[in-house]
Amino acid sequence: MRYLPGAILVLALLMLASLTVGAASVDLTTIRQDPYAMLVLLESRLPRTLAVALTGSALAVAGVVLQSLVRNRFVGPETTGTAESAALGLLAITILAPGAPIWARMGVASLAAMAGTALFVTIIRRLPVREVMLVPIAGLVLAGVLRAIATFIGWQTDLLQYVDGWLMAGEFSGVIAGRYELLWIAALAAGLAWFAADRFAILGLGDQVATGLGLSVRAVMRLGLAVVAVVMAMVMTTVGLIPFLGLVVPNIVARIMGDNLRASIPVVAVFGAALLLACDLIGRLIRYPYEIPVGTILGVIGAAIFLWMLYARPARG
Amino acid sequence: MIRIEDVSHSIGPARILHDIRTGFPKGRLTALIGPNGAGKSTLVRLVGRLENLQSGRISVDGHDLALTQTLELARVMAILGQDTAIASRLRVRELVAFGRWPHHNGRPRADDHARVETALENFALTQLADRFLDEISGGQAQRAHIAMCFAQDTPWLLLDEPLNNLDMSHSRALMQRVSDLVRRQGRSVVMVVHEINYAAAWADHIIAMKDGRIMAEGDPDTVLNQRTLSELYDADVQVSRHQDRPLVLHHA
Ligand SMILES: Nc1ncnc2c1ncn2[C@@H]1O[C@H](COP(=O)(O)OP(=O)(O)O)[C@@H](O)[C@H]1O
Ligand SMILES: [Mg+2]
Questions:
Q1: Could B94 and A260 be called an inter-chain contact, meaning their C-beta atoms sit closer than 8 Å?
Q2: For chain B, give me the number of helices (H) and strands (E)?
Q3: How confident is the model at residue A315 (pLDDT cuts 50, 70, 90)?
Q4: Mutating which of A65, A223, A260, A268 best tests the B interface, going by the most B Cβ atoms within 10 A?
Q5: Which residues constitute the domain of residue B96?
Q6: Which residues, in sequence order, are bridge partners of residue A169?
Q7: B16 alpha carbon – ligand 1 mean position (Å)
Q8: Is A212 within 8 Å of chain B by CB?
Q9: Does the structure show a pLDDT above 80 at A30?
Q10: B6: enclosing H helix or E strand
């Protein structure tokens, strides 16, 4: 628990910075006398800051859950075909029921994401456990195939721009009040994962130990799949694909704190939010007042961290 | 009493167990012996419901495996699998503490913490309690897994080759601890034993398996004789006696 206060402090500072950085100046000390600044804060800065933080923590927690389901540290929710499956689901409902309300679209996206993730987990569980690197490769192949199918259907039905929108590198510049609230559902799903943290930790010990301790392996799998799918569907439709976050954050935290998920999930959530906020801030500052998408920044930083991870501990899964 | 009635098991076309019909007596230390591939682990895994029952019936103290919730069974028996390798990065104490999970479902009480500390002490793990499992030796990790099973604190304990990786003194300490559980606390233990003299020295009841069948069962003096053992292992085996127990000599 001793890492949590420090992580929260860093996150709070980053959130404060995120509220004040941008094209219009917002001074938090005089904001009560400045209706325009107040408007910018409430309609744009605060929603954006919350959206980044919610996305970062939900994705990082989804990463922990996914890694314990497949018992492999080299996967993240963005490398398993989950987002591509959600895109296929959205595509299907856009074609078949164009007028469907938002909750129906989200429901279909989540179910499709769950089906795709379940497919991935089923494939993975048939691979020999010792083939650590086959797991991420299988995920990338599956994601590639699903993406190709989505692109093909999108092209045939003139919906390609939507597909591209869902599966492009994510960014938060379009976030304003009223356009990010679905992310709270993602955060709720991550909260559910914390509630069931012991179950995921026990599942990570293997099916045998889990069964021996009286857990239903299938029930825990279903719960985990639902968490990952809901998080990915909400994030993808609101901000697009965020690379590496769900992969690297759980790894770094596990190195330091281990896999006692009840203790580590809160740290993962705070760290995920802080890392994404930092990347978003860098993207906003580096070519101020223009923006570089956070997905691009994270692509560079995340790839570096991932390489370091591979070299620093190659042997263990 | 664990009853096993007409249990057969196949993997693909291969028949692993043939109509096994036997029982593990309550309040006793039962040893399963036999050559590699005899089906001992398969039988233990079936009893521990780690493998789905294909045919026949198994009951533990009257709980039919097919009809009992897995969580309820986790309070009746603890099982240590033969393969204990895990990828998780847990501290020794955290692993042992999961043994209490069937009793508290995530809300441990003082009593649960106390039992975890006792289990750590019993297996000389207190010094290592805060180390990660991937930073200790194989034998130490094996002791941590056994400690988790003990912390589960169930009337039945199923151990598949628990002496794997353990040195002589820790092997003897484990056998002493197990035998203590049986004689002082009335628990029942079933263990697959590779080194036959541990069975000879400590077991109350021995079941000898070969080729998916039970070849002999009974008390050590009945089963551990020259003829049965030579046939069981397809090797020339001598049986002598030591401290009023059989002693098996198998160097040629
Ligand atoms: N996954 C499997 N596929 C095919 N055969 C298996 C598998 N697992 C075990 N077996 C076979 O089942 C038989 C019994 O194995 P096991 O119960 O592990 O024996 P023991 O524990 O007595 O050494 C062996 O002949 C083994 O080769
Ligand atoms: Mg075996």
A1: yes
A2: 10, 12
A3: very low
A4: A260
A5: 2-249
A6: A241
A7: 7
A8: yes
A9: no
A10: strand B2-11
Burial class (CB in 10 A: 0-12, 13-18, 19+), A200: buried
**Which stretches of chain A are DSSP H helices?**
4-20, 35-40, 46-70, 82-96, 102-126, 134-156, 160-167, 183-195, 197-203, 207-212, 217-239, 245-257, 261-285, 294-312
CATH code, B18: 3.40.50.300
Please choose, from the candidates A160, A23, A149, the residue with its C-alpha nearest in 3D space to the C-alpha of residue A88. Answer: A149
Angle at A118 between CA A77 and CA A276, to 5 degrees: 10
Supply φ then ψ for residue A315, to 5 degrees. Answer: -80, -35
Distance of alpha carbon B174 from alpha carbon B88, whole angstroms: 25
Q: What is the pLDDT of residue B178?
A: 93
**C-alpha–C-alpha distance, residues A136 and B109, integer Å:** 40
CA distance linking residue A226 with residue A218, whole number of Å? 12
**pLDDT at residue A1 in the model:** 60
pLDDT in tens, B66-100: 999 999 999 999 999 988 887 789 999 999 999 99
Identify the band that residue A166 occupies on the pLDDT scale cut at 50, 70 and 90. confident
- The residue behind tokens 């164009």 is A98
Mutate to test the pocket of ligand 1, among B16, B47, B79, B192 (most ligand atoms within 8 A of CB): B16
Q: What is the ipTM of this complex?
A: 0.93
Of B42, B159, B164, best ligand 1 pocket probe by most atoms within 8 Å of the beta carbon: B42
Q: What is the pLDDT of residues B138-158, one digit of tens each?
A: 999 999 999 999 999 999 999
State whether B49 and A206 contact (CB < 8 Å).
no
Cβ contacts of B207 within 8 Å, gap of 6 or more: B22, B24, B30, B31, B32, B33, B214, B216, B217
Mean pLDDT of chain B: 94
pLDDT digits (tens, 9 = 90+) for A101-126: 888 888 899 999 999 999 999 888 88
* CB proximity A213 to B under 8 Å: yes
CB atoms near residue A145 (< 10 Å): 12
Q: How confident is the model at residue A306 (pLDDT cuts 50, 70, 90)?
A: confident
Question: For chain A, how far is it from start to end, CA to CA, in angstroms?
Answer: 25
- Residue A216 distance to chain B (closest CA, Å): 7
Residue B143 tokens, joined: 């002791």
Number of domains in chain B: 1
pLDDT in tens, A180-225: 889 999 999 999 999 999 999 999 999 999 999 999 999 999 999 9
Interface touch B71/A317, C-beta < 8 Å:
no
Q: Residue for token digits 């002598």?
A: B240
B167 token code pair: 């040195």
Contact B89/A215, CB-based, under 8 Å?
Answer: no
Rounded CA Rg of chain B: 18
Residue B252 pLDDT grade (very low, low, confident, very high; cuts 50, 70, 90): low
